[in-house]
Amino acid sequence: MKACIKKFIFSAVLLTSAALFAANEKDKCIYCGSTAYGYCSKSPHKNHEHIADSKHCVYCGSSAYGYCSKSPSQNHKHGHGEGKCVYCGSAAYGYCSKSPAEVHTK
Predict the structure, then answer these.
(1) Whether the predicted pLDDT of 5 surpasses 70
(2) What domain of life is recorded for the organism (predicted)?
């Protein structure tokens, strides 16, 4: 019984460590590894760009949609997922006023 509990605790610690590592990697710029937002000398568009989920902007970390001062297109761009447009959050297809290409991008 004690051996099973020890194995369970060890497995839980490993999974927690892996999840924390993945979360920390997501919080870093893909060009330089910084956790900051704003200017990035190594980025082609000169802004830090993070790997974000569908709930956060890749340029500033905000959960909002619309204007973003740190974005090259001046609009928040969220990570992909949940079948939503990365520029406006809509599940629709077709025209999108916030997208640089003017179409919903999922």
Answers:
(1) no
(2) Bacteria
